[in-house]
Amino acid sequence: MRWKNKGHELDDIGARIASFSKVAIFCAGTKGIELLNVVHAHTNLEVVAFIDNDPKKQGSIVEGISVFSPSKWFNVPKKDTVMVVTVHNKDLQRVIIRQLEDDYGLKYNYDIFITHKFIPLYMWYKNEKLIAFNTIYSITQYCNLKCKNCNSFMQYIQNPKHMEVNKIKTDINLLFSTFDYMFILNLFGGETTLHPDLSEIIRYIHTNYKNRYDFLGIATNGFTKLSYELVDAIKSTNVVVNISNYAQYFPHDDERQKQFATFLQCLKDNKITHYVEGFSSYWFDYGFETVDRITASEEILQTVFDKCNMHCRLMQDGKYYNCAYDKLALNIGVHSQDSGFDLQNFDPKDKVSLLEYSLGYNTKGYVELCKICDGSGSQTRVTPAIQTERKPFPKRLE
Ligand code: SF4
Ligand code: SF4
């Protein structure tokens, strides 16, 4: 969204969210339980129900809370209760919101919200706490794979480098001095475990900020061997390991299969919390080949940006970015338009503007990469994990 009334864009919706005292969570699975824990830990809201389309879950009790079908739940009108939809898959999220609108007459951003928006708005408009929901920090450009459609643009980096550890610490300090709380902070790459100072980085974040975040995670493809020192650091700091399961794309590569299995076993043996991201037959197109909006109007680009509704924020070089991929593209010279929110010269009076920015507002209403990127707002998909040689990004944006 383009800023039209900076600092007050979300006042109405924020006031409405702050007026609720009860919440019903759409999704009785892992994501729903995660949200339940966040609500219990950080708000005074009462969670009154889980709602789920899965008949196997309907009628059950999850974490002491009853699970209803939508039709049963909306049988009688609900007062003071807001519905928050929390599912990982964006396509499914859209389907659920449309179902609630069409079948039960609810309005998106009025009666129904999504987690990433609801929690930061509630926390600000109820408690004046500035929360970042999901922030990534890219610590390395090295990777042991060369995926053709990598969303971090690794395939175009000729001379990769690790981020220098003192620079990382400076950025992390800035992040925590600006935001009151991070729900999720994920270290990201490339392949994070290749960074020689990863143990030091996670110990630093944990030592200094352990009471200021819910989850500290690292992203990995699992084709790596964890050193004793790194296992110890991960265990002692309760870091969550998020594994993208690409092993399934290499079914005939015995060495990779063995490496992946050994990696998983190491996490299990050491009782390290980890999530294996399931098999996906597609990736989103972050600007690789199919999209050309180079001469598109501002209105079209703004529509693309809003529809994408990217939730993945990135911290780097003293700035906060509301589209991580736009910054990663800037880093490798795909374009030269820096859309980051400057945290180095941050004035605490601008907290609401930063909240708005983190929820998808900026000056132009889009970012430069939208000219060649489809993000998650369209049906364009590209093939995952095809291996390629590293080569320069074909010049498409000036
Ligand atoms: S594993 Fe593939 S998608 Fe992941 S960072 Fe490496 S090159 Fe990119
Ligand atoms: S369409 Fe692409 S560049 Fe634009 S916001 Fe979405 S991910 Fe970012």
Please describe the structure with a list of short key phrases separated by commas or semicolons:
398 residues, alpha/beta, Rossmann fold, TIM Barrel, 2 domains, 8-stranded mixed beta sheet, 6-stranded mixed beta sheet, 12 helices, binds iron/sulfur cluster
Question: Could you explain the architecture of this structure?
Answer:
This protein is α/β, with parallel strands linked by helices and 398 residues long. It contains twelve helices and 16 strands. It is globular and about 60 Å long. The model has no long low-confidence stretch (mean pLDDT 92). Bound molecules: iron/sulfur cluster (2 copies). One iron/sulfur cluster binds next to helix 10 and helix 11.
